[in-house]
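Hi R.,

Here's the chain you asked about this morning:
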Amino acid sequence: MSINPVNANRIQSAIAFASQRTGVDFDYLMGQAKVESGLNATAKAGSSSATGLFQFIDSSWLAIVKKHGAEHGLGWAADAIGPGNRVADPATRRAILNLRNDPATASLMAASHASDNAQALSASLGRNATGTDLYMAHFLGLGGATKFLSAMQTNPGASGAALFPGAARANHGIFYAADGSARSLQDIYSRFASKLGDGADSVSETRNANLSFAAQALALDGDATVVTGANESASDALAWANSTLGRLGGKDGAQARASLLRPTPDTARLAYMMLARLGA
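And the predicted structure, written out as tokens:
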């Protein structure tokens, strides 16, 4: 599935900020959003109340906003959610639920929720939680994920549908193969791991394509005049730009790439140089 560059950059920016703020892995969050909604910030499930980038159902969203809203500037929303995650005013309830369609808010809530789940799962399993573990918690809830992962550790070939009959009825394609046979716990887990990896890989391809375009734009015309504004020659400025693009695209450039998605002096300088090279 191709990703619209404008939408992808907006969503990447939102998720990068949420990742940096909470410490949750950027690629995991991107993979989760890709699996859940195909990076469609206004996606709506046909069979449940699941909505938005991360497909939170109403009750889960209200619980997460109640717990984490205030720390992310949504004190008004958190305060409005009472016992049992009820909201007295219908209009306020709708406004809170509609926040699921905002990539920035959805990403912050998803990352905060994943952080909570990571701590709980790590304590329960006696090891660091993986991205797939976190997705199982998103899919089955923390209690369900703990049950699933513990059972898989002792009997990976056990039927997932037998252990989670309600979830299997609602998600037939996940718990059953095309021939109708029940998938094992290990099969279900491995399929989720593959989907998350594919989601993260497709996002990385988009990001690297953007960096490649930037490099090509800078190299279009070696004789073009670049006004650097820093008392340096055009060739020195171009060398700096290519070095910066190389750093952003490198193995250890995740944090730098996340920063690339927000305006900074360096990104503004890169943008200016690209426009100058293109004759804009």
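The longest helix spans residues 185-218.

Let me know if you need anything else.
M.
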